[in-house]
Amino acid sequence: MYSNEDFLLELLRESGMVNEQDLHHARTTKKPSETLMEGLIKGGVLSEEDVAQTMAVNSGMEFIDLTGYAVSPDLKNVVPEDVARRYKVVPIGFEHGRLQIAISDPNNFETLDALPHVLSTEIEFICSTPGSIRTLTSSIYGNEGDMAGTVVKGMEGSSETDAPIIRLVTNTLMEAFKNRGSDIHIEPMEKDLRIRYRIDGVMHDVEHHPKKLHSSIIARLKIMTGTMSIDEKRVPQDGRIQMKFQDKELDLRVSIIPTSNGESVVMRILDKSSLRLGLSDLGFLSDDQETFEKLITLPDGIILVTGPTGSGKTTTLYACLNFINRPDRKIITVEDPVEYELPGINQVMVKEDIGMTFAAALRAMLRQAPNIIMLGEIRDMETASIAINASLTGHLVFSTLHTNDAPSAVSRLVDIGIKPFLIASSVRAIEAQRLVRKLCPECKTPGALTEKELRSLQLDASQAYGATIMDAVGCPKCRGNGFRGRLSIVEIFKMDDEVRGMINQSLPAPVLRRKARELGMRTLREDGVRKVLAGMTTAEEVIEATMSDAN
Question: What is the DSSP string of 402-457?
Fold first, then answer.
């Protein structure tokens, strides 16, 4: 409720407004969820006005009673609703060219420092009570929760008096999520402003606006992050926007970079419901799922997930951690950035500007005695060496690499500078993956493979006979393109004594790949073929995703 309750209580004691008896009574009668100050106010020892006036006098801030106070409706265009609610403040007018804002806690220096930057204006802060600030906030913006409803429900939550830019931005975010977009791209062109959504890995051009709206839209998004500078347009900026959509908690990771035509924005939509995904939800068929679940429950060693950017590696790692997360295990992750917050898991974010690199974080976390470590990516020899040493001393380590297939990860580690015998001793398995679009379950229809597709997939007609081949059609549920969602196609390279011996001999990746296939590894394309024959995706999707797969 207040930023420094102990200091405030001392002020109230010195002024004679409370005594030790009052404090003792409040401690014994307040609810566990209440603060001591809330107990004193609820018990009638103090009023909100008493507290606010005491804080105002101590801080040299003016106190104002907002009961029945009327303000101009236009002020909500000056202070956006999400800013007012986030910082628990309310705009009350202008005086001598400065925006006047009421605040209930003059000791909340974070708010005092942040708001002038967030709103890009000079501010005169005035003290009032929390209750009167809430009441006035509701009279200006509507009942609390309307902002979330606006983001969730789109235009039906907006009134005719809402600022057009706020409505435009809100509608853009709402439409992207309704259409299952993973990214929103706001791109200034030479003559207009283009907005595109990435849906199931494919970019869709959805809107074009006059170029004159560009600066207002960018400013609105910067305000929504609460951390970006509106005035700074010369350097890249990163931030986050948090919102709710139909009772789902969503994060938008915002990246802004300057281009020749102005600042370009990409917002990645992070849907927290994806944290509950299991391996079967990602596209693992039952046999591969059983194999992978056995591997990720080993007591030590390294499990690597490989693939190009955007192939779902991080989501797979999160699914693994969810599967093995139990109260008797300590799990720590090092990520850049932390995309999702996982309950029961200690997550560390890389901050290279202050020296918190992957390697530094990994060294520090080993002193925390974890059972399981997740390293967002192995990027260099130092990080790889620490991860391997951790696996050799009894830790289970998960990480990712950028390689085209699973056996190539061994060559990649050697290129980084890791000795082959250390790779052979530490790595337990390597999983490679790609993402392909899933056929829409509402409109997919029985189909057949063409001769060209049969040749590309190395199938003959008899192998496809009786299979559930399906074609994409298109319906309103999938926006007419025949696909809805994505799934993984995978290959799992397990280490055995023979493979370890070959790694020790520094044999090249193609030799390792041939041996892996002799030992039963299905390639990415072969796993994709199984999913085509099961009616989960199309041959075209698998062929395009596995062009580099050497059969």
Answer: --SSSTHHHHHHHHHT--HHHHHHHEEEEEEEEEEEEEPTTT-EE----HHHHHHT
